[in-house]
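We treat protein structure as text, and this decision shapes the records that our systems exchange. Because each token names a local backbone shape, the row as a whole describes the fold. An entry from our holdings is shown next, in its original layout:
>
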Amino acid sequence: MDGELNFFEAKYTAVVSDLHLCEEEPINHKHPLWKKYKTRQYFFDDLFFEFVRHLNNKSCGETVELVLNGDIFDFDSVTQKPESPPYRVSWFEKKTGLKPQEEKSVFKIKKILNNHSVWVEALSWFINQGHRVVFIIGNHDLELHWQAVQKQILEELKLTKGQKQQVRFNEWFYISNKDTLIEHGNQYDPYCLAEDPVNPYILRFNQIEVKVPFGNLATRYLINRMGFFNPHVDDNFIMSAKEYAQFFLKYVVRAQPQLLFTWLFWSTVVLFQSFFDRLRPSFKNPLNVEERIEKIAVKANASPRMVRELRELFVAPASSYPLIIARELWLDRAFLIMLAFGIFSQAFLFINNMYTISYAWVLIPFLLFLPFFMFYSKSVRSDVHEYKEPREKVLTIASMICGVSRIIYGHTHDIKHELIGPIEHLNSGTWSPAFLDVECEKAIDDKTFIWIEPDDPGPGRKAQVLHFIDGGEQKAFIKNKKIHTQVEPA
């Protein structure tokens, strides 16, 4: 291996993102499709061990920088609770999972790592070979901000004091070898951004918590309680009214007939909590704000000025606009239905006081209202897909701030390698158990990664997206229209 490790320089860099490691879901024998994607049969821990061995061999004995680019752990999907907790677990938490408080986040990471012992062994082996690892925090593993959680991960890896220096936890970005900016990408998604990753905490009822964005609250409170929806694929839970009806009749009606009430109640909870959390200021110590920025800069191989300027590129959170959230949750349509029914019922009661008529007459204006309601429903489109993709302006400004010509994101789960203006843009895809169907037969998890190596004979480095298969690799290929054709940088 090389001599002393230097995070500023990297000859070889590998980037993976969106592993979404979570607790093991026990098989539901009564309803075997319930959260089937979380069962052990879809764990890829053994394949990940082969992957890090492959990186070790591929580097020919030199140091590899492995960047785990966000959503490596999925705290949002952990719903198990400790049997004898040393802290209070509320009724709310029993229904939705533990809150993002420090000691509860430590329980979650222990549960995840215990269920993925082979993955832990693989990463520990990789670090023991002299390589280094950079964790970048994404929107599903925001609880990595807790120092106790980071400490727990290092303890599970069983590293020596010196080896712990080979591991970094970065708040939202990292600059590799002065030529590549690596971010998870959620900071440009209004539904999933951490509003202030420099100070990610809020104070709620005398308890300090990590501030969770709207999209992740929806996973915690809504999708977790509707176990036939796979949270790793947007198309699996963002549907038209017709598709929802077909899905309900095919999968849900027998196992979860009360789904409409579950959706209405928990969607309302998500709406109100995301809005009121938006009003809560970040919990921070004004005396160490600059110190925090300097530490973030050091870990990211950046300057404090870069940290401040990159923060200015963040989008406004969707929680600032409750109507947008209501529309995404379909609460606007529920409100229209209830409003129309209320108006028609009051009109019926008013007329019934003067003339005795059958209550069935209230159905006539309601049926006349339905075509207008259907027209409105079809005209509403979810913006989740649109806002996930990076904007050319953001890519260009970020590259100017950091002095790089290559930017790598994750978050969207779509592999990319393209030129957007002068910027080489890549997306490492996902390793998550992502399926297009409830039966978990139509997989879209490509097990892809980005490999950056010296460009022979050029002075710089070149990058490519590769698909890892058991025992080797191949160049990533197009599987659907969402994946862009690779374009070699000029």
